């Protein structure tokens, strides 16, 4: 099967990992598959160079450098589709060309652009809704990464026959995220001046709810004065809510780690007391899954898709209540038996999610479309 994959978001934090892992695993799992990646020449080349040489011959790159929600996206996207004879066109986001052919699959990760309060760019949000509706109507199948996103689509857009098109295909966790030897973790923490710390992983967008996390952390410092907080994620504004809350609360033990490699990220997970994930809305939530795969307990918001991912392997809090967040964190800090129990449950839970499974389920969707089912 020959697949055209829109790879323009290859370097994005969430969708980028989805594109990378899906492309790599699909090629490894299905030796007869061929992949055409349409995106940045440089980013595609860098990605392909990292792949196993055995699969590199079955992947090619075409330049598709049009910005999201632009006229160029429409013109170039349609041109690339016409110029490349493929069995499947996969757009891993809802910003698909307007004249989407019937052999298309679109992935909708979440409705964050439409759920967030007070959007800064009304035109962009309006354009996004139009693109989403167009993709929903014209694509043969819609892949969503959680039941929560499927429910949002059905609730917010009841006019679309989603039930006939939606396929829930959860994301996986990379095998690179795994428990490390205690000596490795100690060495990593020593090099970076880390002691006992809480960890947040993700970008610093407003829906990540980091301001309330910092308030909860400030509450905890009264009882745990040496406790550190590491925020590992890309800043989207300067200053942002984290900067303002840090200054207002006088937090001196907050560590910011913006450019974090996967190797460092794995060590950060393994060295943390726990991952705290207070997000108000997530289409899936990879960081809790990655943390559990590393044997790190997780404390997460009772919101959106997070219970689908974490199940009974973590503690939950009300993301609007910093006191509740602090209470659950303190509960885990104080109870070694609970930490051990959640570590064990987390490892079992993480083992239920793999990119091989994601690739297999995605291939099933491709085959449905190719057969016209």
Euclidean distance between termini CA atoms = 16 Å
Number of domain modules: 2
What would CATH call the architecture of the largest domain? 3-Layer(aba) Sandwich
Strand % is: 15-25%
Question: What is the average of the pLDDT values?
Answer: 93
Largest sheet: 7 strands, parallel
What does this structure look like?
The protein is an alpha/beta fold. It has 2 domains: 2-172 and 354-371, Glycogen Phosphorylase B (Rossmann fold, 3-Layer(aba) Sandwich), CATH 3.40.50; 182-350, Glycogen Phosphorylase B (Rossmann fold, 3-Layer(aba) Sandwich). It contains 17 helices and 13 strands. The chain has helices at 14-29, 41-49, 53-56, 71-83, 112-115, 122-138, 147-156, 162-165, 182-191, 210-221, 241-249, 262-271, 286-293, 306-310, 322-334, 336-350, 355-371; strands at 2-6, 34-39, 59-63, 88-91, 104-108, 141-144, 166-168, 197-201, 228-232, 254-257, 274-277, 298-301, 315-317. The strands form 2 sheets. Strands 3-2-1-4-5-6-7 form a 7-stranded parallel beta sheet, sandwiched between helices. Strands 10-9-8-11-12-13 form a 6-stranded parallel beta sheet, with helices on both faces. Strand 12, helix 14 and strand 13 (315-317) form a beta-alpha-beta unit. The radius of gyration is 21 Å and the shape is globular. The chain starts with a strand and ends with a helix. The model has no long low-confidence stretch (mean pLDDT 93).
């Amino acid at each position: 099967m020959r697949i055209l994959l829109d790879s323009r978001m290859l370097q994005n934090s969430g969708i980028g990992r989805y594109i990378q892992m899906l492309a790599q695993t699909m090629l490894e799992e299905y030796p007869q598959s061929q992949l055409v990646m349409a995106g940045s020449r440089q980013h595609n080349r860098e990605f392909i160079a990292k792949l196993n040489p055995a699969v590199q011959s079955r992947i090619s790159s075409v330049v598709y450098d049009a910005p999201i929600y632009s006229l160029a996206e429409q013109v170039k996207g349609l041109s690339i589709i016409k110029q490349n004879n493929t069995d499947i066109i996969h757009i891993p986001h809802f910003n698909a060309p307007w004249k989407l052919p019937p052999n298309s699959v679109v992935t909708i990760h979440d409705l964050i652009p439409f759920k967030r309060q007070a959007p800064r760019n009304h035109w962009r949000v309006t354009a996004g809704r139009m693109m989403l509706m167009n993709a929903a109507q014209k694509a043969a199948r819609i892949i969503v990464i959680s039941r929560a996103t499927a429910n949002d689509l059905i609730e917010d857009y009841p006019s679309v026959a989603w039930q006939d098109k939606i396929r829930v295909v959860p994301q996986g966790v990379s095998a690179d995220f795994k428990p490390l030897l205690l000596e490795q973790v100690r060495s990593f923490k020593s090099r970076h001046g880390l002691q006992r710390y809480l960890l947040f992983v993700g970008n610093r967008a407003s829906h990540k709810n980091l301001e309330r996390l910092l308030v909860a952390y400030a509450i905890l410092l009264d009882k745990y004065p040496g406790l550190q907080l590491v925020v590992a994620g890309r800043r989207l504004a300067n200053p942002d809510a984290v900067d303002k809350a840090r200054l207002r609360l006088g937090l001196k033990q907050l560590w910011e780690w913006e450019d974090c490699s996967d190797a460092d990220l794995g060590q950060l997970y393994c060295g943390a007391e726990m991952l705290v994930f207070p997000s108000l809305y997530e289409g899936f939530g990879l960081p809790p899954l990655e943390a559990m795969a590393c044997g790190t307990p997780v404390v997460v918001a009772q919101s959106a898709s997070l219970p689908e991912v974490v199940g009974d392997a973590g503690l939950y809090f009300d993301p609007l209540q910093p006191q509740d967040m602090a209470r659950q964190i303190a509960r885990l800090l104080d109870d070694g038996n609970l930490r051990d129990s959640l570590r064990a449950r987390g490892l079992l839970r993480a083992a239920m999610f793999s990119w091989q499974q994601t690739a297999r389920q995605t291939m099933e969707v491709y085959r449905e479309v190719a057969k016209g089912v």
